[in-house]
Amino acid sequence: MKSIKVSLAQLTPKLGDKSHNLQLLEKAIAQAAEQKSNMIVFPELFLTGYAIGHQVPYLAETKNGPSLTKVKELCKTFSIYTVVGFAEIDNGFYYISSALIDDQGELRGVYRKTHLFDREKEFFTPGTDIHVFPTSLGKIGIMICFDVEFPELARTLKIKGAELIAITNANMEPYERHHHIYAKSRAMENEIPVVICNRLGEEGSLKFCGDSMVIDTQGIALLSMEKEEGVKTADLPLLTTLDPKLGYISKRRQDLYLASSKEQFV
Questions:
Q1: Does 145 participate in catalysis according to the annotation?
Q2: Of 44, 61, 120, 163, which one is the catalytic site residue?
Q3: Structural domains of the chain sorted by starting position, each given as residue range(s) with its CATH number in brackets
Q4: Among 18, 72, 113, 232, which one carries the catalytic annotation?
Q5: Where is the CN hydrolase domain (predicted)?
Q6: Which residue stretches of the chain have pLDDT < 50?
Q7: Which of 18, 61, 72, 145 is catalytic?
Q8: Phi then psi dihedrals of residue 185, to 5 deg
Q9: Does 75 participate in catalysis according to the annotation?
Q10: Segment 54-99, tens digit of pLDDT
Q11: Given this model, what pLDDT does residue 264 score?
Q12: How far is residue 38's CA from residue 109's CA, in Å, rounded to a whole number?
C-alpha cells in the first residue's frame, strides 16, 4: 500500500495583504516539514484573501510572479509539495487558480477554477481545462471550492488517471454541510482520496467555515479539522485494495449517459 503524509493549512489570510499571507504560508510550510509531510494544501485564493473584488487587477499575478516565486523557493528549501490558491492574470484575463509546486521548487502545473460561484463571475473568467499532473507522489488532480459540487469534474479527473484530488476551498456559511457531504461523496463514488483545505475568518458579510478534511477512498475522514486553526498532518493511503463488487468506473453505462447528454433540459 502506497501512502503519503498530507498537511492541511486551515488558516485565516488577510484580505489584500500578500506579504502577510506569504508569512503565514512560510510558517505553515515549516510546520508541515517538521511533521514530515510530503504535501501541504492551502485554501482558495490564499495569497490575496477571497473577497478581493475590484482589487483583482492590482493583486493578480502571473504563474511566474513574485508570490509564486517565493513559494517555489520555500518548497525547495523544505522539500515539500504545495498546492496554493492565487489570483492569476494571463493575457488580460483573471482566474481563480491553484498552483501545484513540487519538492524541488518546480511548478508542476496550474488549474483554473471551472465553476464560478455567485459574484466571482463579475471579476474572473472560468477555466476551460481539466488537468491531471504526474508527480513523484502520484497523479494529482486539482479542484477549487464550488467545483466539488459538480460530480462530473471529479469523475473526469479519475478517468484521466488521477490518484489523488486536492481541493483548495473558501467555503462559507451556510454551505458547510454541502462541502462536508460532497467532498466525501466525490471520494467514495470515485474510489479516490480527496484532500480539501478550507479557511477560517470573516471578510465583510462572509464567514468562512473551515471543516478541512483528508478523506480516503471509502469516504472516511482520516483528519477533520472542524473549526480548529493551524496546520495538521495525516497519513493518506493512495493505492488501496478496492471492493470488486463496486467498481464504479468499470461498471459505468456510457451508452446511456452519452445519449442523455444530447437531450435538452429546460
A1: yes
A2: 44
A3: 2-239 (3.60.110.10)
A4: 113
A5: 4-238
A6: 265-266
A7: 145
A8: -65, -45
A9: no
A10: 999 999 999 999 999 999 999 999 999 999 999 999 999 999 999 9
A11: 52
A12: 17
